[in-house]
Design a protein that fits this description.
This protein has about 280 residues and is α+β, with helices and mostly antiparallel strands. It has 7 helices and 11 strands. The strands form 3 sheets. The chain has a 5-stranded mixed beta sheet. It has a 4-stranded antiparallel beta sheet with strand order 1-7-8-6, with helices on one face. It has a two-stranded antiparallel ribbon with strand order 10-11. β10 and β11 form a beta hairpin.
Length: about 280
């Protein structure tokens, strides 16, 4: 599943241009095609088409794992889930004929300049919403990890206000928006914290180090355009710098101990048993 760095990379490319694709800022929707009705969570397809055609895109941002397109009077939100991707491509061939949709295209916005935005989603888990107020969809999300307002003191209070294992807590989007399996594992390793540590037992200094580690791996991931470990990640190379994620049996880059894999909350988790010692039982 694309996480914060991958979604940020996609949002920036849509906004600023990149990956050999133009920016979509200022483009006007001339037609909308929905090939998988469940992709569109809100509103119904006929209403969606009526409302979005003729609107122009003012901005593209990210919130958590959501891509947010700001039109003049509404917002179009995408959650990529397991396999979603957003591509800007030509809508017409050299003869002026429409280029057929790709096999896994679920929703296409055609633009008046001959380009289109295609939401391609192999597994069909991705979703889109067209809403007046994005907070109706985003309102339950936790703070952004890179938000300066999230100070070490605030983060420490968040951690110690609940009693949960560290890895599942970091994956909870209501607690912290944007983290997933990759960056949670990498951040916990960098902070030298065991993924099963109870959040209520963390010290203020450990919380400070963890927040710094989360920000460090996320910024590195963004710098490297995310990780390319599946068909949905295009162009990133952060996978070449993993310290523990998907490195089971390989030596820890810090101490040389083989990386272990366990399952916590039904999620695969990678860690170093020496650098991240198991919490002492009280």
């Amino acid at each position: 599943m694309p996480e914060l760095p991958e979604v940020e990379t996609i949002a920036r490319a849509l906004r600023d241009g990149g990956r050999d694709e133009p920016s979509i800022i200022g483009k006007t929707v001339s037609e909308a095609r929905v090939y998988w009705k469940r992709t569109l969570s809100e509103p119904r397809v006929p209403v969606f088409k009526k409302r979005i055609i003729g609107q122009s895109i003012k901005d593209v941002k990210r919130r958590g794992k959501f891509v947010i397109m700001h039109f003049h009077s509404e917002y179009l939100l995408f959650h990529l889930r397991m396999s979603g991707d957003l591509k800007v491509e030509a809508n017409l061939d050299e003869q002026g004929h429409k280029i057929p949709a790709q096999k896994h295209d679920r929703l296409i916005l055609e633009f008046s300049d001959g380009m289109r935005l295609a939401f391609n989603d192999t597994r069909k888990f991705g979703r889109a919403w067209l809403v007046k107020d994005p907070q109706t969809i985003l309102g339950d999300l936790g703070p952004e990890p890179l938000d300066p307002a999230l100070t070490p003191e605030v983060f420490y209070k968040m951690l110690t206000s609940c009693s949960r294992q560290m890895k599942p807590l970091l994956l909870d989007q209501k607690f912290l928006a944007g983290l997933g399996n990759i960056y949670a594992d990498e951040a916990l390793h960098l902070a030298k914290l065991h993924p099963m540590l109870n959040s209520i037992d963390i010290s203020s200094e450990q919380a400070k180090v963890l927040l710094k580690s989360i920000r460090s791996v996320l910024r590195e991931g963004i710098k490297r355009n995310g990780a390319s470990i599946d068909w949905v990640y295009r162009g990133g190379d952060f996978q070449n710098h993993f310290q523990v994620y998907q490195c089971m049996g390989e030596p820890c880059p810090v101490c040389g101990t083989p990386i272990q894999r366990i399952v916590i909350g039904q999620r695969s988790t990678h860690f170093c048993p020496v650098c991240q010692p198991e919490p002492k039982k009280s």
